[in-house]
Amino acid sequence: MSTRNALVLPERRGEFKVADVPIPKPGKGEILVRIHSVGLNPIDWKIQKHGLEHHLKEYPAILGLDSAGVVEEVGEGVTKFQKGDKVFHEGNLNVRSGAYQQYTVAPADLVAKIPSNLSFDQAASIPLCIMTASVGLYVKDGAGLQGPWDGGEGKYEDQSIVIFGGASSVGLFAIQLAKLSGFSTIIATCSDCNTELVKSRGATHAIDRNADVVAEVKKILSEPFNLVWDTVAAEDTQHQAIKILASDGTLLLVGPPEESVKAVKGDRKLYRVFGSPYMHRELATSMYTKLTDYFESGKLKTTAVEVLPNGLAGIPAGLQRMRENKVSAVKLIVRPQE
Ligand SMILES: NC(=O)c1ccc[n+]([C@@H]2O[C@H](COP(=O)([O-])OP(=O)(O)OC[C@H]3O[C@@H](n4cnc5c(N)ncnc54)[C@H](OP(=O)(O)O)[C@@H]3O)[C@@H](O)[C@H]2O)c1
């Protein structure tokens, strides 16, 4: 049986190691992808360090959620792709579909072709973070808006949103999707150095995250907001967010709500987002049919990338940088074939 290299997490809270594992066969409706570039995400170090059983129970595991590569083989019934197509997709946290490896399988309906204006590295910066931004805005239990790819482009003209963490990978997509949806006021918090970046993505206002954020938001719009997207979900951002949210508004969070925030929420909705296309298949399938065009036309732009050395073996050092909060407005990328 052919094998490929993978970065394996042998046990809960174990140490990553590069190992040889069998190449999976694509099943019905699946494709086999030879991964050229993979994006790193904070969830990977959180799983390795804390275990996080609600995310992952089975070990040995292969993590990694952002894949870009070339179709190597198509499974039964797949007509949308053929061998040689350049594609990107979100992985899943299991041995067949994790992205920290040289070959992975993916369901064809959750894959998009890489547009001609993007490299593999740029394409690998997209999947998890755009899905996360999208779930918050477009699933019924979140903000429940109509997706731009489902006829909702430009539909929410008079609406306003505050996005905490505007320069994070999730935040940069949340800004762009709010813009595509037509929001007239998009306020983003970020470090001062990222002001121009968030504005270039569609923020109408940028607030220094170290300022008195609540006071600064109120200077822009004194009315409370129906929708706030906290892509940081730290204790301080959640407390700021709840203070500017309307009494029946929706707060979207990338992590669990703080107990103290739950205690004051009243009729406000707190929605914890999981950016998984496998949990939100209908939204993901619809979004993936349009992503190639959106990036090709420049309506959506990728996050800046930084390619790390040493292939799969370079991933733990990158995750450590994320853990130390030493990543700003950039997606760390590894090339598994190196
Ligand atoms: N639930 C899910 O499905 C899901 C999916 C993806 C990510 N996440 C979580 O979402 C968070 C963001 O992920 P990511 O990949 O987007 O991370 P990232 O790009 O690595 O985030 C780094 C950015 O966070 C910003 N930031 C940190 N603290 C901030 C604060 N107090 N106010 C404003 N901005 C702040 C920094 O902005 P400046 O450089 O401007 O200071 C920095 O650019 C992580 O906790 C991750 O685990 C959850």
TrEMBL record:
Domain Enoyl reductase (ER): 14-334
SMART domains registered for this protein in UniProt: PKS_ER
GO molecular function per UniProt: oxidoreductase activity, acting on NAD(P)H
Pfam families with a match to the protein in the record: ADH_N, ADH_zinc_N
Cross-referenced Gene3D superfamilies: Medium-chain alcohol dehydrogenases, catalytic domain, NAD(P)-binding Rossmann-like Domain
Protein name, as recorded: Enoyl reductase (ER) domain-containing protein
Organism: Sphaerobolus stellatus (strain SS14)
